[in-house]
Write a structure and sequence with these properties.
mainly alpha; 6 strands; Growth Hormone, Chain: A; 17 helices; single chain
Length: 520
């Protein structure tokens, strides 16, 4: 028996982690700490931009949108490099190292920006250019690190289970819980510490979280049973330029990507232009393939998949207001006092993950029950329901803000918007990737998966643009009061838009289902 066969046999018989392979515990903890790191930092980012660097709300939203959109794009490239050359283990390790450096870089905050009044009475903001560049470079390290880690660690989870292993789905469920547990704790703990102790403490805590994830992954590699190893060690070690192996060329390329993203993140408009260009190119390629290379049935399924990808852009663009406009709303316009204690605004970023942990099992039971009685909604109906709930969440918040007038909105309305957004997410997100694999023609599944991630990235950039619509109220007591009307107008409009689009999808869902030709 070969070494590879021995490892495969060991993996198949391993049930040391609650009936699952021991490697799942390693991946669970690694991803939990990585998400703790990412969401802890994300919860603080918009406040760091507006309060430390004194960027305007509008500029802060644009930087935030550019950052989160690139975070969604780089895993496509990192996944391809791991599949062809590096293997998931090396890719995750390299990504984790970049993330550690990026998170600790965020903790180097430097002096706060200052308002300077000139002799003519004009006011300007002076920022330390050196520390500002450290900040942008740290964002670039995090973006690139996520690119190498995020997609590949999920790949390892699937590889732990032999083909046909009935434990696979429950294994991914456990892993998914690790993701949300880390996200919840990151926003809760790092968010609280960052506001009450200092930016350096919150970002530093996120950095130590990532160190914990890296150590966990390195210690547990033996439990991966070789599934995350490079597809060909010989190809990886091959010298291809100036005596440098292909592996180190990839690492050098990763560092160069950090430098390129460092420049790109400082010119946020270029990020939007890039997405516009790539988006139109990919859409044209999908349309050309569908109409020129596909028979009628395959073409119909490709068109449905493309339509649902486009609708997901609207969903995520509105959903991702959480870390930007909704975060500032919580800070300025919500009464956050509970039992005499004022809760820091970033802490409420944990609500989405908390609701996922509590609601996901209920949704799973519901879909199973409806399937048994042959009443489970089709994928288009689930998409429609998800978008309707998203819009309804905004309308509920608008109602609550209206009750408060110019005063502070009651906390319950902020909690409710996150509740409805999470229930909408659970209708749409879990079926998204599955839908792509089922409806796409086999030879272009990779392209369609890339389109899905591209749409998610573009949605995050659009989220920054939408958030900009809420800026203009200013800060302080006066600004907080004047911003209420702006929030109500914007959120009412996007809420009505989402409900309308969701209803339209429900109306045409029988046509979409017909075009899916039996795919549920």
């Amino acid at each position: 028996m070969t070494d590879k066969a021995i490892l495969a046999a060991e993996a198949a018989s391993d049930r040391s982690f609650f009936g699952h392979p021991r490697g799942l515990a390693t991946l669970f903890m690694t991803e939990m700490w990585e998400r703790f790191s990412y969401y802890g930092m994300r919860a603080l980012l918009i406040f760091y931009l507006t309060q430390h660097f004194l960027f305007s709300d509008s500029r802060s939203f644009l930087i935030y949108g550019a950052y989160t959109s690139l975070v969604y794009l780089t895993p496509v490239i990192g996944g391809l490099l791991a599949d062809r050359y590096l293997g998931s283990r090396k890719a995750v390790t390299f990504g984790a190292i970049l993330l550690v450096l990026g998170q600790f870089g965020m903790a180097i905050q430097g002096p706060i920006a200052e308002h300077m009044v000139a002799a003519d009475g004009s006011v300007s903001i002076v920022r330390d250019a050196f520390f500002q560049n450290i900040f942008y470079f740290s964002l670039a390290l995090i973006i690139t690190g996520v690119g190498f880690l995020k997609a590949n660690i999920s790949t390892i989870v699937g590889a732990l289970y032999p083909k046909g292993d009935s434990r696979r789905d429950s294994g991914f469920t456990i892993f998914y819980m690790g993701i949300n547990l880390g996200a919840m704790l990151g926003a809760l703990i790092a968010g609280w510490v960052g506001i009450t102790v200092g930016w350096w403490a919150g970002f530093g805590l996120a950095g130590f979280g990532m160190v914990g994830g890296l150590i966990q992954f390195l210690k547990g590699q033996k439990y991966l049973y070789g599934h995350a190893d490079p597809p060909s060690v010989k190809v990886l070690k091959e010298k291809i330029f100036a005596g440098i192996s292909r592996e180190y060329i990839i690492y050098i390329g990763g560092i160069l990507a950090v430098v390129a993203i460092w420049q790109l993140i400082q010119h946020q408009e270029l990020v939007g232009t890039m997405y516009d260009g790539f988006g139109l190119l990919v859409l044209a390629a999908i349309m050309a393939f569908s109409f020129l290379k596909c028979e009628r049935e395959d073409r119909n399924k490709m068109l449905v998949a493309t339509f649902l990808i486009l609708t997901s852009v609207l969903f995520w663009a509105l959903f991702e207001q959480a870390g930007s406009s909704l975060n500032l709303l919580a800070q300025r316009n919500v009464d956050r006092e509970v039992l005499g204690i004022e809760i820091p605004a970033p802490v409420f970023q944990s609500l989405n993950s908390l609701f996922i942990i509590t609601l996901a099992p209920l949704f799973s039971i519901l879909w199973i029950y409806l399937s048994k009685i042959k009443r489970e909604p089709s994928t288009p109906v689930k998409f429609g329901l998800g978008i309707i709930q998203l819009g309804f969440g905004y309308l509920v918040l608008v109602f609550g803000m209206g009750l408060a007038g110019d005063g502070q909105t009651a906390l319950i309305w902020l909690v409710l918007i996150y509740f409805f957004h999470t229930s909408g997410e659970l209708c749409l997100s879990p079926v998204g990737l599955s839908m792509i694999t089922k409806l796409s023609v086999t030879r272009v599944v990779g392209m369609m998966m890339g389109a899905w991630f591209l749409a998610s990235g573009y949605a995050n950039f659009l989220a920054g643009r939408i958030a900009q619509l809420t800026s203009g109220g200013g800060e302080g007591a006066e600004g907080a009061a004047s911003s209420v009307a702006i929030y109500i107008e914007v959120f009412q409009n996007v809420g009505l838009l989402a409900v309308g689009v969701g209803m339209a999808i429900l109306i045409i869902s029988p046509i979409l289902r017909k075009y899916m030709h039996g795919v549920h």
